[in-house]
Amino acid sequence: MDRVDGRLKVTGGAKYAGEFAVANLAHAVLVQSTIARGRVREMDVRAAERAPGVLAVITYANQPTTARPTNPPSGDSKRLLDPEIVHSGQNIGVVIAETFEEALAASEMIRVVYDTAKSDATFEDRLDTGFAPKTGNRPADSKRGDIEAGLRSGATKVDQIYRTPIEHHNPMEPHATIAMWKGEELLAYDATQGVANSAQNLAEQFHLTPDQVHVIDPFVGGGFGCKGQSWPHTPIAAMAAKVVGRPVKLELTRRQMFTSNGHRPPTRQADTFAADEHGKLVALRHEHHNHTSQRDEFMEPTGSLHSLLYSCPNVLVSHKLVRADVPAPTYQRAPGESSGSFSIETAMDELAWQLGIDPLELRLRNYAEKDEAGNKPWSSKSLRDCYRRGAERFGWSERNPKIGSMTKEGLLVGYGMATASYPANFRAAAAKARMYPDGRVLIQCGTQDLGTGTYTILTQIAADAIGVSPSFVRVEIGDSKLPGAPTSGGSCSAASAGSAVMAAAQALRGRVIGFATADETSPLWNLGPKELDVKEGRISAKADPSRSMTYAEIFARYGKDAVEQTASAQPGMERGPAAAQGSQGGQAGPGGYTMQAFGAQFCEVHIDPELRTVRVARWVGSFAVGKVLNEKTCRSQLHGGIVWGIGMGLLEETIVDPRHGRFLNTNLAEYHVPVNRDIPPIEIILVPEEDKLVSLVGAKGAGEIGITGVAAAIGNAIHHATGKRVRDIPITLDKIL
Ligand code: MOS
To answer: Looking at the whole model, is its pTM more than 0.85?
Structure first.
């Protein structure tokens, strides 16, 4: 089924947070620090205040005091506007004017005098200051067996350091908030992956009760993690609206998107793998460091896969943070698995090369039949099928293992592969289903559609459960007043919101049909749910289809206006209580099963033998993600993940100027994301998978797994073509000259 919101999107009818027409709207522009460390001594705002159209200039000196949001991780907003500077691009003021242009012009008239201290935005030279996070997003350290004895027993070893750079999310839609007050009630259109979380943060920030805050966001133009928590600009917009007594719109510029809403932190991953002569892993050690800001403890859990992806008796996985004078890092698509899969899947390729074993065969020899970290069975795992079907489709058996042996039209050809994996998260959600007398259905759920297809799958789930045409179903989401659903992060929304909608829709169907089956004068008298078929709004007895009624007939006969049912879905005990915690979920709950999605990535690269330019020539990704709710949107998610993985492998990197602690390439001209010409034909194989444990709808989520393993597969293909092993991404041509 096509996207139900497709027409709205291509006609411009879909409204994003910054696009709502609000009367009497004023415009705000942020002022951000140009130093990375020190203190604002003085802000001369006199010229700005006198500039045309200016309504107010708010700085640390005159801001109404507000508390820090208490829902961690909360960015770097110790105070909304703070003279104490801990990173370049920190919010120090906001100008509100009649128009955006006037606010922007005035913001540039502010003179700031700083007491500048020496900053350090790097982290690798201070690994000795590394510390274990106290409030990490999810536990990922892991230990089993005897690592030292295991490392000694190996016949061969890979002992290397892998590095990933700072990367940024760059959704097409920048963050935007329109905030307005009506007395003590706050309404905000806010670009967010979690309307409920945004509302909760605003309530805490302004000491309001939950029902005094209303956050609306019907369409999101990509989130990828940077809209997964509430950043300071959202309460700043609300504060500005309060100060000027008018609705205020605050949009981040693309440049501000590099300093104001998190980034993927750089990682240093020291991996030591040991294997016996047959390639069976005997020891695996992973020591991780990433930078975090002076005020947060954001950990990128790169070792999440090291602990469970392969069978290995002796494992030690540890994570540490190093403080730096940088903005707060945050979740970015497959946080942990994307950066971690680069090291583990490159190291496995190195091991295969050293042993002379086919890389795919090596992975099969180390196949994990259970989660050895949690010592639990998988709820389902179809990775062997993913390997097999991907390899067949790709033609992996045609690979000549000799380095540089394959060529095409004068170009070096390399084949590379990697395993993909991401947890199957599920968090509690509620939904309401309501039927009207004509048999039409309204579904309400406080989830959101990041562009992933939430509207579409919820429409399908409800239509299917109730037995009406999808055109009879309307879905309302993206509103904090609707029944609660989790932040759309950790690939959880299809499973979570989908299961809640399914439960509500099933309850509604039962309730409405119940009017007829309880009535001895109706054609459906006394029939149980299993004895009924419902199609296109007509309910009929399986045994005797002539006994039937439509939903509309039931409503007419029993004089009902509208009937509604609310239901919720939550993780069951088979998943374990701990898995419901933390905004990224986690795989190591004490429940009975580990729930994880798997896949396999195969790619071919073409490399100019002299210029060393790399082009990805084709891609086959094969995935088992539980039940596929909508093939088109599921494929698009996986496809998008691979596209971003190609960016991660070859292009993307935020560069720090070490002298000033400043990000240098804060724009899309200098921060390179893939364009169409960089992207080869991508083939997605959806491996059928049945999993009755993972969620009511049977889905594992598909938003993040697609990017995992991609950078490693490219690096492995480059090694196959050139013999050059690159252990730090992006793999730019200077690294393979
Ligand atoms: Mo995604 S990085 O879990 O929003």
So the answer is: yes
